[in-house]
Design a protein that fits this description.
Elements: E1 2-6, E2 9-13, E3 18-24, H1 31-43, E4 48-49, E5 52-53, H2 56-68, H3 80-92, E6 98-105, E7 109-116, H4 122-141, E8 153-157, H5 160-176, E9 189-191, H6 196-203
Antiparallel strand pairs: 1-2, 3-7, 3-8, 4-5, 6-7, 6-9
Length: 204
């Protein structure tokens, strides 16, 4: 297992690891908001509550995701043409460099649940998703500049219970954000064929 750090968040990479990953648009949250959130979470780094140790990374991620669901920024991913570019990027090397389990493309961020192939690296996979999609989208929009935020949020999945939790989270996110009434109404969520039965069982 390799531990790396980019910016505020540490990242754990392990061979054939399964990850829940979130990455977002560059303009999705103002810098001032992020600075305040980081400071608030760092203040609680060593704080204890009954039976628990406050984990700044977990708290930071939860607050970021709650803010993202409010639809901040340009929300380029709400354009069907752009959303389809992102989905195609996610699926491009499925079965070769990684195994894609589930995903959802929200208006200003993306959630992915996947397992690395034994010789693949997490950072390389994410760079490929972001790089290829940003190039195509910038051409489509006739714009230049950063499209994705450099940082990303990852959770190494260690149990079946965690896997099921994040699978539910991915499909329920558009409903929770008020984008649709039922999970299957959102066109930019999907999962591998072997998980369809599980998703149907969760939400039937």
């Amino acid at each position: 297992m390799i531990s790396r750090s980019r910016g505020y968040l540490p990242h754990l990479e392990t061979s054939e690891g399964t990850y829940f990953l979130t990455f977002r648009l560059a303009d999705s949250l103002p810098t001032s908001v992020l600075i305040n959130l980081k400071a608030e979470c760092l203040l609680k780094k060593n704080a204890r509550i009954p039976g628990n140790l406050v984990l700044p990374k977990d708290e930071y991620n939860r607050k970021i995701e709650a803010l993202l669901d409010t639809g901040a920024g340009e929300c380029w991913l709400s354009d069907p043409n752009i959303a389809s570019i992102v989905v195609e990027a996610l699926r491009h090397f499925d079965g070769q460099q990684y195994f894609l389990h589930a995903w959802t493309v929200m208006p200003n961020h993306v959630h992915v649940l996947f397992t690395l192939e034994s010789s693949s690296k997490l950072s390389f996979i994410i760079q490929g998703w972001k790089g290829s999609s940003a190039l195509q989208v910038n051409r489509l929009l006739n714009r230049t500049g950063r499209f994705w935020q450099p940082e990303y949020f990852d959770r190494l999945i260690k149990t079946n219970r965690q896997f099921e939790f994040y699978l539910r989270y991915i499909f329920n996110n558009p409903v929770k954000a008020g984008l649709c009434l039922e999970i299957f109404q959102w066109p930019w969520s999907g999962c591998s064929a072997d998980l369809h039965h599980m998703v149907n069982r969760f939400f039937r």
